[in-house]
Design a protein that fits this description.
The complex is a heterotrimer of chains A (335), B (398) and C (225). Chain B is α+β, with helices and mostly antiparallel strands and 398 residues long. Chain B is built from twelve helices and twelve strands. Helix content of chain C is 32%, strand content 25%. In chain C, β1 and β2 form a beta hairpin. The radius of gyration of chain C is 18 Å and the shape is globular. The model of chain C has no long low-confidence stretch (mean pLDDT 90). The chains are: A mainly alpha (335), B alpha+beta (398), C alpha/beta (225). Chains A and C meet through α2 of A and α2 of C.
Chain lengths: 335, 398, 225
């Protein structure tokens, strides 16, 4: 399935990100070897200048990675037209063993690149640039992730054989059929809704408390809660809310909500969820940096903003994702 | 946050003025970029329009088609096999079809001849709607034919008033043409001859106990794969085709054709990216001076990078809108004359159907990923190099 | 005490074949609200000294303090942030961008600061009025006279209301009338409380009555005489 426009676009995005991050990594190695802020040599001046290059490269890479994630899902949807048994992106992704891992690695990548940018912003707001070494070491660890991303993508695309039967979303996500083909299941309806709204409520509570008074363990709890909520929300959207959006009880799929027939509501929902999760989790990611010289106020300031934004996105996400469900429960009929 | 937004707006304003001040250089990049996007976007729109046309054409075909095979080739299917399928739950109707290809030696074209049993084919009452004004579809009478437009053209060239075709024993069968299909349905009917089923049997010498294939209509589309499987099990020696399989085959063919053309377009894109890199890299002494002045006046490297970023976004944004608009016009008003031959393939009779592309966000994102992203990536390093011009070069002794 | 340099040395291309020592062990203190002149031949290091005072780059060794802030070993970014707040530059040949209008040239230092455009125009208007160039607001800088260019350059240096003004060979390409006019403006600025440092070897500048101190720079050192 390599020879079509979507595959070419995906591979192009992957190669571009690899190129940009490869350059950034080259810079990172030079910084790690030669960085000496006390020095006034030409090399040090050049390295200080290169900081702007690497940050720009990572920012572009993040932007392209986000677009690549969206293109990946849309491409999977396109492939489903050529794969027997696949009704939408879910079917394509399950057609071989590389689809879902590729998606998960891409999602992870978005978060990890984002965290780098947060570190960078904190670093450049302190006069000592205290995080230079940590930042570039972290960047080097992103490279294997990147290579994994591209490899899984290539393996997924080349592994797609148009005549292989796969399961489509109605089979995979249907509660009625049990067994190994069930990707997401095991929660009863009532329990998953309770967990969903319960976790959202707890997050709002902790977040509101944090906005008034900062406590270290609360920050960690908040971020861990966000990680849990992120995964839970993806499951609940798939198993519960999506079928109300489609107005079809057996159509449970996390990808079809991105289609124009449903007014692209999936993009709005996932945008809010990803942004909220990113801000929520990043609060704890930078917590250990509080004790680094010169970063105390920067970390505190960012954490405040991050908590605030994550709560706003959380409320927005809960409202948008629940709308069709509650509309049906309360009024009946399609949303 | 407010001042961050204002900061970016001010920088955007500066970027606009900077682009305008160097308009000769930027215009050349813009024109070439728009052209590349035009090519990529037209291509995508055509592919998408063809795909959707194919899908909509298929919507009215039977869910399952059963063909009898012998030594890997299709042969006639006996009508009594439909009795053996009667036990399969979920089948709405089984309709025999008699059809085949007729090679007309004079025009060198292959006609598709379809025999229709009156009252058996679903939606038959709609056939009248697909004919040109003066056309009449008479399902009962023998000796009458409905033809596609290119066949009429051939007849007019030959000066014939009757459609004459030859049976296998070389005796002639003549048909009065009572209707011609409209141009809107060219894609299906251009080379089609519709006859009464007995006339078709007579023309091809197919006995009344046989049919070319069987159309199986199924009520619940979700059950099609199950029923198809059961039919295949009940009737060994047959090929059971589902509508989705045919659709998938079209998708794969369109897919690889469009992929092949995408690869060709990639060379155009690569050439453009190199051009963009080259243009962005060339820093004139005036530009260097301008940047060092900005730096000494208090602009950070990040601020100059922001100017370059917005310049890139503006150029690519304008090129994208221009390219996509021209592509749409190309496909709609000029019927994609540049690309159709590549995608539609060879045929003696070219259907003159119109392409109707639709605006879909995913198509735009695809074109964006294939064009704007490589451009932006190509300009990162030149942008940084220009932002790295040191402040001290603005001072006299430096 | 606005400016303090202690034992400042600047070496270009350190540890390379073309290593050059531009400044050697400079000790310097410049008071608030004073006008100081740095005089020296080209290659003497006066431009380097001006650049260090102007937070354009770091010394190789030694300490620099401007407006109470220690600047040694600060990354370039923070030098820039300090510079944009505390220092206004006037250049030889003015370094006005010819393709921008007078108003746009004057507001150039404000663009990255996140100040609303209306506010930027208002600040520029005040200065243009003061220097009598308001009628040239929308003219491209390439179309105004030398004297008007000079005023644009000074207005631009003042747009952020910096306490320190640095002028780098400002009268090098001016006739005596414009040079005198320039010094007149500098005198006004000094009266308004600014600190001014000018590099020049023009006698019209170095011998001007309002110059408090003239420092001779030779071979990277301040001449004791």
């Amino acid at each position: 399935m390599l020879l079509n426009s979507w595959s070419i676009a995906l591979l192009l995005c992957g190669l571009i990100v690899l190129f940009l991050m490869g350059l950034a990594a080259r810079s990172a190695i030079r910084v790690l070897l030669f960085w000496n802020p006390e020095s006034d040599s030409n090399r040090q001046i050049r390295l200080e200048n290169e900081i702007w290059l690497t940050s720009t490269l990572v920012e572009y890479a993040l932007g392209i990675q986000i677009i690549s994630l969206i293109v990946f899902v849309l491409a999977a949807n396109f492939y489903s037209q050529s794969i027997a048994g696949a009704m939408c992106a879910t079917g394509s992704l399950l057609a071989n063993s590389f689809g879902v891992p590729a998606l998960l690695v891409k999602i992870g990548g978005v978060f990890f690149y984002g965290f780098w940018i947060v570190l960078h912003q904190l670093d450049i707001h302190s006069e000592q640039y205290p995080l230079v070494r940590k930042k570039y070491l972290y960047l080097l660890f992103l490279i294997p992730l990147l290579i994994l991303d591209l490899s899984l993508e290539i393996l997924f695309i080349t592994g797609l054989k148009p005549d292989i039967i796969t399961s489509c979303c109605a089979v995979v996500f249907d509660d009625a059929t049990g067994g190994g083909s069930n990707l997401i299941g095991g929660f009863s309806h009532g329990l998953s809704m309770e967990l969903f709204y319960g976790t959202a409520g707890v997050l709002i509570g902790i977040g509101s408390f944090l906005l008034r008074q900062r406590q270290r363990w609360m920050v960690v709890l908040f971020s861990s809660g966000w990680l849990w909520f992120f995964l839970l929300a993806l499951a609940v959207v798939t198993t519960e809310f999506s079928s109300y959006i489609y107005a079809m009880p057996f159509h449970k799929c996390p990808f079809c909500i991105l289609k124009p027939e449903y007014h692209y509501i999936g993009f709005v929902m996932y945008f809010a969820l990803f942004m909220g999760a990113f801000f929520g989790m990043s609060a704890a990611v930078i917590e250990p940096l509080r004790f680094v010289d010169g970063l105390e106020s920067g970390v505190a300031g960012y954490q405040r903003s991050a908590v605030k934004f994550s709560l706003l996105f959380l409320v927005f996400f809960v409202l948008v994702s629940s709308y069709h469900y509650w509309r049906y429960i309360l009024i009946g009929g399609e949303g | 946050m407010n001042s961050r937004l204002t900061q970016h707006l001010n920088i955007l304003d500066y970027a606009l003025s900077s682009l305008w001040r160097r308009r000769a250089k930027n215009l050349s990049v813009l024109v070439v970029f728009s052209w590349v996007i035009f090519l990529v976007a037209s291509f995508q729109l055509v592919t998408q329009a063809l795909t959707e046309t194919a899908a909509s054409v298929l919507r009215s075909t039977p869910e399952i088609t059963v063909q009898m095979m012998s030594a890997g080739r299709q042969i006639g299917i006996p009508l009594d096999v439909s009795r053996r399928l009667a036990g399969i739950f979920g089948i709405q109707d089984i309709v025999p079809r008699v059809w085949g290809y007729y090679f007309d030696e004079v025009s060198g074209a292959n006609y598709t001849v379809m025999g229709i049993a009156p009252g058996r084919m679903p939606l038959l009452d709609r056939l009248q709607l697909t004919l040109e004004d003066s056309g009449v579809y008479d399902s009962e009478s023998r000796g009458k034919a409905i033809i596609g437009r290119s066949i009429r053209r051939t007849m007019e060239e030959k000066g014939s008033t009757l459609l004459s075709m030859f049976r296998p024993d070389l005796s002639q069968a003549s048909f009065e043409v009572t209707g011609v299909f409209k141009s809107e349905v060219d894609i299906l009917t251009n080379d089609l001859v519709v006859l009464n089923i007995e006339d078709a049997r007579d023309l091809f010498a197919i006995p009344s106990t046989m049919a070319t294939d069987l159309c199986v209509y199924v009520a619940n589309p979700a059950e099609v794969p199950t029923i198809a499987k059961k039919i295949a099990e009940t009737l060994p020696g047959t090929r059971v085709l589902t509508r989705s399989q045919i659709n998938r085959t079209y998708q794969v063919v369109f897919g690889w054709r469009s992929g092949f053309a995408s690869v060709c377009l990639l060379t155009a894109l690569t050439a453009f990216v190199i051009l963009a890199w080259d243009k962005a890299s060339g820093l004139s002494p005036e530009e260097k001076r301008e940047i060092s002045i900005l730096k000494i006046l208090g602009w950070e490297t990040a601020d100059v990078l922001a100017v370059r970023f917005w310049e890139g976004i503006l150029v690519s944004g304008i090129a994208f809108v221009l390219g996509c608009t021209l592509a749409y016009a190309h496909v709609v008003f000029f019927n994609a004359s540049l690309f159709k031959p590549v995608l539609i393939g060879w045929s003696v009779i070219y259907p003159e159907f119109r392409l109707v592309p639709s605006f879909r966000l995913d198509q735009f994102l695809l074109v964006f990923s294939l064009s704007v992203l490589p451009y932006l990536a190509a300009t990162v390093i030149p942008a940084w190099r220009s932002a790295s011009v040191p402040a001290d070069s603005a001072l006299s002794g430096m | 005490m606005l400016i303090e340099l202690k034992n400042v040395t600047k070496i270009y291309n350190q540890e390379q074949v073309n290593e050059v020592t531009a400044l050697r062990e400079i000790d310097l203190t410049i008071d608030d609200n004073s006008m100081t002149c740095l005089r020296g031949a080209s290659g003497s290091g006066k431009s380097t000294l001006l650049a260090i005072i102007g937070c354009v780059f770091q010394p190789t060794t030694g300490r620099v303090s401007i407006a109470g802030k220690q600047l040694s070993r600060l990354p370039d970014r923070f030098l820039t942030l300090h510079r944009r707040q505390y220092i206004g530059f006037i250049f030889q040949t003015f370094n006005i961008l010819p393709t921008l209008t007078v108003q746009d040239n004057i507001t150039l230092p404000l663009v990255p600061l996140g100040i609303p455009p209306a506010e930027m125009r208002r600040k520029a208007a005040v200065l243009m009025e003061r220097f009598g160039i308001a009628h040239r607001r929308n003219f491209p800088a390439s179309q105004i006279s030398g004297g008007e260019l000079q005023r644009v350059a000074i207005a631009r240096a003042l747009i952020n209301n910096p306490p320190l003004i640095l002028a780098d060979e400002p009268t090098a390409h001016l006739d005596s009338r414009l040079s005198e006019e320039f010094m007149h403006f500098m005198k006004d600025l000094k009266s308004a409380g600014k600190t001014i440092i000018i590099t020049s070897h023009d006698p019209l500048v170095t011998e001007h009555a309002d110059v408090d101190r003239v420092l001779d720079i030779k071979d990277g050192r301040i001449d004791a005489a």
